[in-house]
C-alpha cells in the first residue's frame, strides 16, 4: 500500500504535466485517507480475530480529519462537481471506518462496547468533521468573495485606463485638426497680403481662433489632470484593498485555529474516556468551544460589515468578557500546562473595534502559552489603564523571553520566529502590530532571555 501510495503521488505529477489538473487535484484530495483506511483494514479483513476493537484510534482519525479539508484547499467553491465528489469520498471514509473496525475485530473485544457508546462516538466525530469543514468553507468563501471584489476593482481600473487612452486619442486628433487649421490660416494669410483691410480682418479671425484653441487646450489639460488623479486614487485604493484582504485572511486563519484545536483535543479525550460522567463533561466543554468558535466567526462578520463602508464603527468592549472568551478557547492548553492567568483592568470597558481588541489579546496570550519556559509554571498578567492620550493594555509573562539585541529589528516582521524548537508560524506578533496601528496606536516590548516578556499596547480610544 505504501508503494501504491508513492506511485499515486507520482501520477499526480504526471497528470499535471499532461495538463489533467482536475484529475491530479482529485487524486491528491482522496489518496491519503483512502490508503490510510486500506492499510488499517487489509490485515483485519484476513484475520479479524487477531485484532481488538479500540474505539477511535487518535492517529488514524486525526489523519482522516486533517485530510478531509484538502479538497477545500485545492478546489474552488465554484467547482461544485469535483469539490462535492472529493468531500463525499472523504466523509464516507470517516463514517464507515469505525463500523468496519467494529465489524472486523475479535468478538470478545466488540462485546465490551455497547451500541450506545459506539453511536455516540460516531456522532461526536461527525460533528467535529462538520465544524471543521464548515469553518474551512467559511474561510474559503470569504477569500473568494474578496478576490472577486479585487477583480471587479481591477476591471474598473482597466476601463478607466481605456477611457484615458481614448481621451489621449481625441487630444491627438484635436492637435491634428489644429495643425490643419494652422496650415489653412497660413494659406489665407498669403492670399490676404494683397489687401490691407482684408489682412486686418484675417488677422482678427486668426487671433479669435487662437484664443478658442488655447481655451480648448486648457480644458483638455484640466480634463487630463482630473483623469490622472482618478487613476492615481484608484491605484491607491487597489493597494489598500489588497493589503486589507491579506490582513483579513491571516486574521481569520489564525484566530480560528485555537477553538478548532480545542475541539479536536476534546474529541480525542472523549474517545479515550470510559466514564459516562467524563464524556458528558467533555461534551459540555465541546459545546462551549463551539460557542467560542461561533463568537469568533461573529466578530469576523463584523469586520466584513466594517469593510462595507462601516470600517470605522466602534463599540463598547468589555475586557473581562473578551478575556473570558479567549481563556475558554485556549482552555485545553491552559489546563494541560497549569497556566495561571490574572488580570487587573482599571479600564474595564473601552470604545474600540471589538474584533481587533479580541485578536490582540488572543495573540499575546496564546504566544505566552506557546513560548512558556519548561523550568517553571507559566504566569500571565494582563492589565489596562487610561492615560491622557491612550488606553494602555499590558500583557507580561515569565516565559522563554526574546533576545532583543539580536531580534529587535525582526520582532514584528511577517513569518519571523525566534524559538525554532516550538511549533509556530511567526504570524501572531505581525497581526498584533498591524491591528494596533489600525487603531491609531503603537506597541512596545521589553524582554530578556529566560526571564519573560512584557508587551505594552497603546490604543487611541474611539468616541461614541
Walk me through the structure.
The protein is an alpha+beta fold. It is built from 14 helices and seven strands. It has helices at 2-17, 21-46, 58-67, 70-74, 80-103, 107-110, 115-192, 196-272, 276-310, 319-329, 331-336, 354-370, 404-407, 428-438, and strands spanning 315-318, 340-345, 349-352, 379-386, 391-397, 442-448, 452-459. The strands form two sheets. It has a five-stranded mixed beta sheet with strand order 2-4-5-7-6, with helices on one face. It has a two-stranded antiparallel sheet with strand order 1-3. Helix 7 packs antiparallel against helix 8, helix 8 runs antiparallel to helix 9 (276-310) and helix 12 (354-370) packs antiparallel against helix 14 (428-438). The protein starts with a helix and ends in a 5-residue tail after the last strand. The mean pLDDT is 78.
Write down the Rg. 33 Å
Tally of contiguous helical segments: 14
Mean pLDDT across residues: 78
Strand order of the largest sheet: 2-4-5-7-6
The share of residues in helices is 55-70%
Provide the succession of SSEs: HHHHHHHHHEHHEEHEEHHEE
- Described by the principal axes of the CA atoms, the overall outline is elongated
Low-confidence stretches: none
Distance between termini? 64 Å
**Largest sheet: number of strands, sense, barrel closure:** 5 strands, mixed
Q: How many DSSP-defined strands?
A: 7
What structural class is derived from the secondary structure elements? alpha+beta
Beta-strand residue percentage: 5-15%
